[in-house]
Amino acid sequence: MGAGLAGALLAWRLSARPEFRVTLLTGDGRPDATAASGGLVRAFEPGSETARLAALSLAELRADPRLRAWAGYRESPSLYILGGADAPVAALPPTARWYDAGRLAAEYGIHGLPDGAAAVWEPVAGHISPHGLRRAVCADLAARGTAVTPGRLHTVARTGEGGVRYGVGSITGETDALVLATGAWTGPLLNALGLPADGPGLRTKVVQCAVYRTAGRRPPPFVDATTGLYGRPVGDDRMLLGLPTRRWGAAAGAPHFLAREERAVRTTAARRLPGLSLERLVRPVAAVDAYGPSGQLALAPVADGSGRLFLFTGGGGGSAKLALAASHEAADTLSARLRAPVPHPTCTPREMS
């Protein structure tokens, strides 16, 4: 359930396995985090597990011409700037190098870094269109005969036989297992199943960024962990830039684009990228995403979910770079878990508004 990038890729992985018959419930097309994602991909991440998934995902993407085309992959170098305390301990991908503050200023126009800060420079990284990849994967699923069902979910309930019953539009069905790859909508869906929305430790937060028409010196795709600023070039004369927000606990849907947060991006960019002029805001972007306690995208069973209810969400704004590898591993995990016998609790159906 859920056709963001994570859910679409998991359905795609499962549909290739003969032991599964997959139905992908895509939702009703409301704005989601996949459509808003900047799509940065690279092999480096500060955490060892996210770095492993990021490197595997990038390797698969670059090795598969079909995935590259579906994702609109644009190859470029990448920079990940770390503060002085973090830089010496981070493990590097094989092709990556450390760039000190002097080199960052000379080659990329990045200034004002704190003492000891350095960047991980990767020669081969870049960005994708998560929405484009999601759309192509869903089209491929449908072309190969997988049920891809649009529409708003209105009923979901556990059955006495250990499965899950659902209703979407005029369609009803039952399934042996249900995976919620539903991002910010996960809490309400868990409530509909009679389960606590905060049981898995999920929190929601607004992600806001914008595309600007620019002049001057544009850096390659980058993350500046010393300020939170991130960005990438868009076309020939534009730049996507953003900062993490503090809007935790946001309701799923289309949040407001806040001018004060946009001004903070301009202020931070002027300090860190003084050679880049932000001439005009071209496209505002705001969405709500789900963040799990580990900050990673991984399959997890839901407590009291009868062994047949799982989450595949919670990676927050960085899930696009992990989704290929994470979906492959989630399919392996799900296959192993569904071989085990489970109890058969009952649950009263609840209606979804």
UniProtKB/TrEMBL annotation:
InterPro entries: FAD-dep_OxRdtase (IPR006076), FAD/NAD-bd_sf (IPR036188). SUPFAM superfamilies: FAD/NAD(P)-binding domain. One of its GO terms (cellular component) is cytoplasm. Coiled coil: none annotated. Keywords: Oxidoreductase. Pfam families: DAO (PF01266). It comes from Streptomyces morookaense (Streptoverticillium morookaense). Residues 2-332 form the FAD dependent oxidoreductase domain. One of its GO terms (molecular function) is oxidoreductase activity. This is FAD-binding oxidoreductase.
